[in-house]
Amino acid sequence: MMIGSRTLAVMAALAIASGSLPLAAQAPDAAGSRAVQRLPANAVAVPFMVGERLDYEVRFGSLKVGNGSMEVREIAEVRGRAAWHTVFTISGGMPLYRVNDLYESWFDVTTLNSLRYHQDVDEGSYERTRRYEIFPERGMFRENESPEEPTVANPLDDGSFLYFVRTVPLDVGKSYEFPRYFKAAGNPVRIRVLRKETITVPGGTYKTVVLQPTFQTKGIFSKNGRAEVWITDDERRLMVQMKSKLSFGSLNLYLRRSSGTK
Fold first, then answer.
1. Distance of alpha carbon 16 from alpha carbon 148, whole angstroms
2. What does residue 186 show for φ and ψ, rounded to 5 degrees?
3. How many beta carbons lie within 10 A of that of residue 93, not counting itself?
4. If you write DSSP's letter for every residue of the chain in order, what string do you get?
């Protein structure tokens, strides 16, 4: 949806403690988590699964400028908890300005609370690496090696928020408010459900529900923004299109392929 960086705003719109879980594990990855082979029995029901991947075409007005993807890579063990591990990528750009960004989220399978969030941003001459460790049980988070800071109850990062929204009821004409963004200044996140619409994108024709998300920050989904997101009007809730109107033009994303969906 928006917040951690300029590009995740684009991607997003593109778009329990259980230390005794009896899960078979593999070797730790570079983030210190361990891949596990199955969901625990107390996992909350969700409309996604390991292997789901959505590929997007990114356009600035009518000009194709890049590609993006959203992927549910695995179930991982983070500090003794089973967590969904999701990966967002975006690449492309225009002459003299290239983008190659990677965002990863790990969120608890029983609460959807964020446990870990990574940003690797490479945009033109700008580069940034951020590593967040989030501790819902203590109400704290840490950025890189900085001192811990307070977080909110049931925190969500940029990536996990996208998946969380797919699990809640969305009735046309209603607005929903979620004070769950892990950095308190970004709250509350509001979702207006505008209408239903059938659309055609490179990946096919879909019946959709149109949403307008708003965060209390700057960017595409700011309070004064006019971005809209189309998600499938079925149990999968796949994001198939995003359109935004910016001061310097329109930035749009279109689903071109999906695989591994329920």
1. 20
2. -85, 0
3. 16
4. ---SSHHHHHHHH-----TT----EEEE-TTS-EEESS--TTPPP-S--TT-EEEEEEEETTEEEEEEEEEEEEEEEETTEEEEEEEEEEEEEETTEEEEEEEEEEEETTT--EEEEEEEEEETTEEEEEEEEEETTTTEEEETTSPPEE--SS-B-HHHHHHHHTTS---TT-EEEE--BSSGGGPPEEEEEEEEEEEEETTEEEEEEEEEEE-SSSSTTSTT---EEEEESSTT--EEEEEEEETTEEEEEEEEEEES--
Residues recorded for the chain: 262
Q: How many CB atoms lie within 10 A of CB 140?
A: 15
91/99 Cα distance (integer angstroms): 5
Structural domains of the chain, with CATH: 6-259 (2.40.360)
Could you give the CA distance from residue 232 to residue 241 in angstroms, rounded to a whole number? 10
**pLDDT, position 25:** 35
Residue closest to 84 by CA, chosen among 102, 121, 111: 111
Q: What is the pLDDT of residues 10-64, one digit of tens each?
A: 443 333 222 222 333 333 455 556 666 678 899 999 999 999 999 999 888 788 8
Place of tokens 């809730």: 237
What tens digit of pLDDT does each residue of 67-93 get? 999 999 999 999 999 999 999 998 888
pTM of the model: 0.83
Q: Exposed, middle or buried by CB within 10 Å (0-12, 13-18, 19+), for 163?
A: buried
CA distance 3 to 231: 20
